[in-house]
Amino acid sequence: MKKTTLITFAVIALYAIALAVWQLYDPTSKLTQFIPGADNRPAGTARRADSVVIGEFFMRYDVAPSNAPSQGSWQAWTGFRGQGKDNICKNATPIQLAKGDFPVLWTIETGEGHAAPVIFDGKVYLLDYDEHVSSDALRCFSLITGEELWRRWYRVPMKRNHGFSRTIPAIHDGKVVSIGPEGHVMCCNAQTGDLLWTLDMKKRYGTEIPFWYTGQCPYITSQGELILAPAGKDVLLAGIDMKNGEELWTTPNTVAFKMSHSSVMPMVLGGQSTLVYAGVGGVCGVAADGNEKGKLLWSANKWQPSVLAPSPLQLSSSQIFLVAGYGAGGALLQVDRSGQQWTATIREQYKADKGLSSEQQTPILHDGMIITILPKDGGGMRERLSLYTPSDLHHAVWNSAADERFGLGPYIVIDKRLFAFKETGELYVYDILPRSLQLIRKQQIIPDGSDAWGPMAYANGMLLVRDAKHVSCVKIED
Hints:
6% of the residues lie in helices and 38% in strands. With 478 residues, the protein is mainly β. It has helices spanning 2-24, 201-205, and strands at residues 57-60, 88-89, 104-109, 118-120, 123-130, 135-142, 148-155, 170-172, 175-179, 184-189, 195-200, 219-220, 225-228, 235-241, 247-252, 265-269, 272-279, 282-287, 296-300, 313-314, 319-324, 329-338, 341-350, 364-366, 369-373, 385-388, 398-399, 411-414, 417-421, 426-433, 436-444, 457-459, 462-466, 470-475.
């Protein structure tokens, strides 16, 4: 009994001591007060969305020279849908496809997104997003080796929304221009990466960035004018001097369009060089040259999809095909001119399962046939490659096989062959026949590829493809 009492008192004493220590101990005694700036954090590692310093950081990489074609023999793919804005590469001589599987020359990892590369002077340019440092990054690589040559970046905080970057840079006269997900425009020397000028579309024009970030790709005219569609409170389109970033002209936003994911497309309509833009609220045409450059010539608001990614496709000197996803389907726009008077009328409009349609990619008009991939709501032929004629937008003349479905993947015409990239990273090659396509080979390029939605680029026998987190260079020509 006495032994039990001693043990009881010992336990009570131990708990009493522990309680006293717990009450007297101050866990904050060794902490120091945080004072902003006292941690020696490098400048620029934190940014608010409204305090972005575009192009503030730069890094050049020490890369050994690589074997490359002689000067003057480089081909180029300098912007969205290539030089002709038709997504068609017309080689002077027919290409000879590599025998056996196409070699994958290199693969690089990227931030999650769908931005696609361009090619110029043996270099690859890609607008990326580095989630680790919350930064847009314009990256330059060697086309031959895939080694990174330089990178210019700036901090801009964003949340992932089906990835980050979506746009394709544009190159002209030794300058490369990019548009970031939040509408930040940056112009650099394409060779050195030196920053030339910048423009913030939200600050300058009051642009309202679309839900899935900026999808608009920059367009540069042959005269060196950068064309933007900020679709802000006061300015619909703007012409920017590539030399210094200054405005050359603006189009008042009297139609109250907002920015879509679509890009401005150059067309000649009624003998007038025209910039055609499909925004949220309708589609419009702006004079691209002459004394009336920048003037709004016509607009139509009878076709207003809530989400718009593909760009307008010209079918003739007076007809434009419009298409969008999420059930919007397609529409045919008729544009007529009588002297200085213009009229724009939606001649027909239909749902996605009733004819030619597309959700992500802009269709290709090639040799009188329209090539498209039907959207997920496109009926029984959904996600298949399909061919239509401009005279009949409702009945396909050819569809790919049931197991040849591409989702939101891209496609490109190279020397009368169609290269189509499944969103799972598999490349299909077709011969283009008068009213059909003939599959000649297929190959998995990106193992376990996913969301391969970014457009392809081609130069010097090398095809660039990407999925959500990789860019690969494929040698398709012997």
